[in-house]
Amino acid sequence: MKKEHKNMMKARRRNIALTVAYDGTAYAGFQRQTPPIVAVQNVLEAKLQTIFGDTIELAAAGRTDAGVHAYGQVVNFFTDGTIPVNRIARAANSLLPDDIVIQEAWEAERDFSARHSARSKTYLYRIQTGGTPDPMMARYAWYIRRPLDVAAMQSALDIIVGTHDFSAFRAAGGAPMSPVRTMYEAEIHRASEHLLECRIHGSGFLYHMVRNVIGTLANVGLGVLTVDDFACILASRDRKNASATAPARGLYLLDVRYDGRPHVQQKSSTCDTIEASSK
Fold it and tell me: In the predicted model, what is the mean pLDDT of the chain?
């Protein structure tokens, strides 16, 4: 039955792709949940069904967890709906809540899949530091009161660049897949006096991988672990050797890259939150 339904969806005339931004605070992650639990996918599908007049089933580039945000989530779906592509974002944003915004819509090739066609992803993680937490950042950054050694943290991040087995940073419960991934870039910088931003760009990521890297990286910054310790943890391929998982609220899916589509760097700044610009 599921196979027949999948074939029916693909028989539809149009393959529509969207870039979506959302504040994940109020949602049980991106992936569709059974009511009364609400995920971003539940809300998006319901509003898109109103616009297109048929059943919508989204495929997504990444299944972000509860509390995780996105600037550049990519989804696609098949439809016979006739609304012009240049009107989709405005029409959908007029129905969506303020914490979910469609930034872009385009007509994709039949074989395009937001998940399977992705070539790489970039994640952003924000850490707030200093003696007093900023309440305006409480939902958007991990607060660590003590000072962090940013230079040591960058040295640790340099170790993960390249192709490695990331089993040490893999949480239990994810889909079975190879733990080998390639990281193209990994950098941390001080965005402002009390805000650090870490960006990791890679071919793909394991379940909770970025948050587990960040949790361990924070202990390097605090002096609990050395850079050599971090290297040994990666080499051990044992999750028990890494630190606790960093909170979801500091993590953002920044962008997803595909062949044939120019990469547009999503902006991020000290005071960025995700706002609906099309209301």
Answer: 90
